[in-house]
Amino acid sequence: MITGCKIYSFTGTTLSSELKTITIQNVVMGTAGGPANLTLTFTEKLKEYYQRNTSLKLKPNDADLLLESTIVGYELTPVSATSSDKAALNRLTIRVEVRFVNAKNEEENFEKEFSFYQDFPQEQTLSQVEGSLVPKIIDQLVLNIFTDTAAQW
In CATH, what class is 20-151? Predict the structure, then answer.
């Protein structure tokens, strides 16, 4: 089944068969905050997800596809106040600017911000929950980035 130049696959990707390689640049930290290994973890999860869910080969440069990402926000905000004007929940949000370049089809190029968050009870500190929340947020961001670049639903 071919629709235009897109090819359907059971992994959910709609990548053209002429696309063979991808360069995933190391994620850059463009804001303060977050665990020391945040950019490394994010980069590795992106690479792993593309390798597992596409037939694209990773290439250090000059690939058919290019993915550049910068973490532009690592924010803790109060959510839903209690009757005593204290936050009942806190929200950890990670925002990432992504630049995607398709060397074979410039119409698919974009620069876009992705964000995702997880809430946690105000009785807990960020340092208590960061280790469990950050991986969940990164997993969802990776999925959202993948969907916009490889699945394009």
Answer: alpha beta
d(CA 118, CA 93): 7
45 SS3 class: helix
Q: For the chain, which residues make up each domain, given as ranges? A: 20-151
9 pLDDT higher than 90: no
Beta strand pairing status for 65-81 and 21-24? parallel
25 and 66 in contact (C-beta within 8 Å)?
yes
* CA Rg value for the chain: 18
pLDDT in tens, 62-95: 999 999 999 999 999 998 766 666 668 999 999 9
> Can you tell me which residue has the tokens 């250090």?
60
